[in-house]
Design brief:
- The chain is an alpha/beta fold.
- Helices cover about 40% and strands about 20% of the residues.
- It is built from 21 helices and 20 strands.
- The protein has a seven-stranded mixed beta sheet. It has a five-stranded parallel beta sheet with strand order 10-2-1-14-20, with helices on one face.
- β1, α1 and β2 form a beta-alpha-beta unit.
- The longest helix is centred in the middle third of the chain and has 17 residues.
Length: about 525
């Protein structure tokens, strides 16, 4: 019987895993992509809406991708290249206001964050004035890490080393924008690892300790010199074949697609549908994962079908694993990882550049929580004007909820879209002074959409590694937003590494004994 690999979940991680498998496996090996809903793409969702005679884009999930030379950034760019999506990319110049200007809503005003030494010389806005004091505090404060502590909250760490103001005014805003979560719950070890390591491995504080951490990082990177060399050669080859595209990317700070981020997931789906050995099963959720009498892994679908697989790549959210493994004792990561509820409200006006400032948008820190129901606002038309075409419009996105969703709006399962839309319009009127009526307002609620890496995450990740190894006699790996980072580039890179570097696809008859977490965990180990 032909070998089969089943991929559970049709979001960005599942789609990219299926894509990399389809590239590496011969036609005789089957790839099954199983998605419980009728729609592929997960939280990546772009809609073209119409109002007032205008047609415009509404992003419901991730909206931009970063450029640069990191492995994460290059993994996405190379996927864009492989999918022939280069002509659909729209880029943001490094010199644009969207690249340089990002704001914090503080004391009822938009405070522009410093973007370099020049901005520091022109004077710091009120929200940022705590930062020099915080740096000085770290430099003169001896080591004060809790004895035998393996982790602490971002709030505790930042407050202890730089002062509580730095967390309340700045760090809390950044974490609202990335994780829609409270720094008092998030793990410093997981999310601020270089800084946490600088503090815990020396006696001179964080700032002075970063040089030591950089040395450790170089020693750690030396382990991957062969991998890195091969990846550089591949990138050089790509640049030679499409020089104009890569030159555009080199001049950009971030990018997206003319018709939104869904272009990427649709490109993956289109390519997968052309592969004779790829089967896409949508609208059939997996209800159980078990081991068959022949030792193979089995996926039980809602309609009763039982699909046999040599190996499973499981990209489902953690809260789904609890259900599909039934009575099997689960991991602490599964049981103790909360997910944030976030409402995304797209607001479109029939006028250009109505925002009082030019830039990417702004975030709301804890210090301003009493004045705002929002986590932040993105100025979509300022950030990516090419997506508007010739339309005279202004698109904004208001993000609501996160750690305060229930206290502000009640049960996410019963809140009305009208309540969310009214909160978004109130935010825009009060914080941006925009009083004109919008042409279109559309709220989308993301229930349990972003995993929170709470205190103790790294230790729970290690226990998850052991738990996955113990399931199905080594015939399952995991990938997705709950492991190593929730952003699109991290999800894509981790699935690529799993398929291309860790799984032995020439020996699918035997258990792989690869969890997909090995390299992620190793990133939290340091070389002395």
């Amino acid at each position: 019987m032909a070998a089969t690999i089943s991929v559970l979940g049709g979001g960005i991680s599942g789609l990219s895993a299926a894509w990399y498998l389809s590239q590496r496996l011969p036609p005789t090996v089957k790839v099954q992509l199983i998605e419980g809903s009728s729609r592929l793409g997960g939280w990546v969702r772009s809609e073209i809406r119409q109002a007032g005679g205008a047609s415009f884009l509404a992003e419901k999930g991730p909206r931009t991708l970063r450029t640069g030379g990191s492995r994460e950034a290059l993994a996405v760019l190379e996927l864009v290249d492989d999918l022939d999506l280069r002509s659909k990319v729209v880029a943001v110049s490094k010199m644009s206001a969207a690249a340089r200007n990002r704001y914090i809503y503080f004391n009822g005003e938009l405070n522009c964050m410093p973007s370099g030494l020049a901005s520091l010389l022109t004077g710091l806005p009120p929200a940022v004035r705590c930062l020099p004091r915080g740096i000085f505090h770290d430099l003169i404060t001896s080591k004060n890490a809790p004895e035998d502590s393996t982790d602490e909250s971002v709030h505790s760490f930042v407050s202890r080393r730089f002062g509580e103001e730095v967390d309340d005014n700045l760090a809390s805003a950044v974490m609202h924008g990335i994780y829609a979560a409270d720094t008092k719950e998030l793990s410093a070890r997981a999310l601020l690892y270089p800084f946490w390591l600088a503090d815990h491995t020396g006696k001179t504080g964080v700032i002075r300790g970063l040089r030591r951490v950089a040395k450790m990082s170089r020693a750690n990177s030396a382990r991957f010199s062969v991998r890195d060399s091969m990846e550089r050669q591949d990138n050089d080859s790509r640049r030679a074949k499409a020089p104009e595209f890569w030159e555009m990317i080199d001049e950009a700070s971030m990018y997206s697609f003319r018709n939104g981020m869904q272009t990427l997931t649709e490109g993956l789906v289109s390519k997968l549908q052309l592969r004779s050995n790829v089967e896409i099963i949508a609208g059939q959720p997996a209800t159980k994962i078990q081991q068959g009498t022949d030792g193979m892994a089995e996926v039980v679908l809602a309609d009763g079908q039982i699909l046999s697989a040599n190996h499973i790549i499981n990209t489902l959210p953690l809260h789904c694993l609890r259900d599909i493994f039934g009575d099997v004792r689960s991991s602490s990561l599964i049981e103790n990882t909360p997910y944030a509820d976030v409402a995304v409200v797209n607001v479109t006006y029939l006028a250009k550049q109505i925002e009082p400032v030019d830039g990417f948008g702004y975030l709301v820190p804890r210090a301003s929580a009493g004045d705002s129901k929002a986590l932040g606002v993105v100025f979509d038309s300022r950030a990516l004007p090419a997506q508007d075409g010739d339309a005279s419009i202004s698109r904004l996105t208001v993000m609501l909820g996160g750690p305060r969703f229930k206290s502000l709006f009640g049960d996410p399962g019963s809140v009305s879209t009208t309540v969310l839309e009214d909160a978004a319009l109130e935010t825009i009127r009060n914080q941006l002074g925009i009083q004109m009526a919008p042409a279109d307002v559309d709220a989308t609620l993301g229930r349990r959409c972003i995993p929170s890496y709470t205190v103790g995450y790294v230790d729970r990740l290690k226990s998850m590694h052991e738990w996955v190894k113990s399931q199905l006699s080594g015939r399952m790996s995991v990938a997705g937003a709950a492991y190593g980072g929730p952003a699109v580039p991290q999800c894509i890179l981790n699935t690529r590494d799993l398929v291309n570097r860790h799984l032995n696809l020439d020996a699918l008859d035997t258990p792989q004994n690869v969890t997909g977490l090995e390299e992620i965990i190793s990133n939290f180990e340091y070389i002395k």
